[in-house]
Amino acid sequence: MHLIITSYQRLGERFGAWELRRTQSRLLELHTTRQQRGLRSKIVSVETGMPERGITGVDPRDALAVRDLILLLDQEIGPLESVLIAGGPQIMPFHACADPLGEDERSIPSDHPYSVRDASSLLSDWAVARLPAESASVLLRLLLLANRAQHAVPRQLRKFFAYSSATWQTTSRLVLEEAGMIAPLVSAPPTGATSLDLQMLESADRIYCNLHGINDGPFWYGQATGSRGAVVVALRPQDVAALDMRGSVVVSEACFGAYADGYNFDESIAMRFLLRGASCFVGATALAYGAPCRRWPRLISLPPPFCAPRCGPASAPERHFSKRGATGCGTGSPAKGLSMKKRNEPCCRLGCTPIRLLSSPGINLYNSGCQGGFGRDSEDL
């Protein structure tokens, strides 16, 4: 069962009755398309529940209650294969998880508890993804693109694009090698946002970025080698805003790359990729930790086979997703395997909680262009 979950109550309160009706229509279109593809699908608004099965609604502001509701749905209409959360944290809350390193007073926003039957498990039982729009127009656009992508035909990989901070070139090359990605590695510096060849980015099926990110701004940064290496802007939302990214898979190791509360996330690089047609975006909701001298001055020892020698744990989910994605499986399938080596608990705690999938599970990776055009005109909204 592929579950689409949201809160009509919260959508109406935030966006108004008219936008709620439009959102409900788009959700129904996505649900219908999934069924036409042979996927069992169900839409549930959490405050309503599923009364025909005796499942009562819950408070959409209570993340634990929403998780319990998902578990009941898994028992009644499951087993679940994926959960798609429609809306940002103002609509459907994140779980506030403690920093696994115990070094930061801030909690880590995470959807992982929505993906497990056992609250203490580090292994996801089904894929969970989110369309994290903060405005009605962006959510409507993402639902439209998700529906179009369901119609697309899978195609073979064509090109990879890899972009790394100069300080992390060694780790980035190891990630590419382990994932079997044959691609030149663009380094920042000397490359920066104003000199990046955007055609290389647009023509790639799979994009890997190992760059700096911050919580209070949308840019990603590169850093020169050395203890006081110069920092340059490597990628900006406006660099992606006019590109055709249909069918691409984007994996980022930037801190806060998949969520930040310090600015309007609708204006983030991640959302620009999704709004330009990327099949999915995989990134971190908090700090991304790694090996010493390559990401942060901290030693975290991890045994193989989950982590390649000299690669930090921030790289492990990216390598895993990239390797499984190369087979052409659906967007939810690689996510289900994250943190699958439970004996490597240090890596699981670092790699599982903050890693987030922004997508609609069930889309075949590397989709070809969808019929109906791909404009940014008002008719698409």
Describe what you observe in this structure.
The chain has 381 residues and is of the alpha/beta class. The protein has 11 helices and 15 strands. A 6-stranded mixed sheet has the order 8-7-9-13-14-15, with helices on both faces. It is globular.
Low-confidence stretches: 291-353, 364-381
C-alpha geometry: globular
Order of helices and strands: EHHEHEEEEHEHEHEEEEHEHEHHHE
Helix content: 25-40%
Strand content: 15-25%
What CATH architecture of the largest domain do you see? 3-Layer(aba) Sandwich
Quote the average pLDDT: 77
Output the strand order for the largest sheet. 8-7-9-13-14-15
Using the coordinates above, name the CATH class of the largest domain: Alpha Beta
Structural class: alpha/beta
Q: Count every beta strand, where a strand is a DSSP E run of 2 or more residues.
A: 15
**Total domain count:** 2
Specify the biggest β-sheet: 6 strands, mixed
Characteristics of this structure?
381 residues, alpha/beta, Rossmann fold, six-stranded mixed beta sheet, disordered C terminus
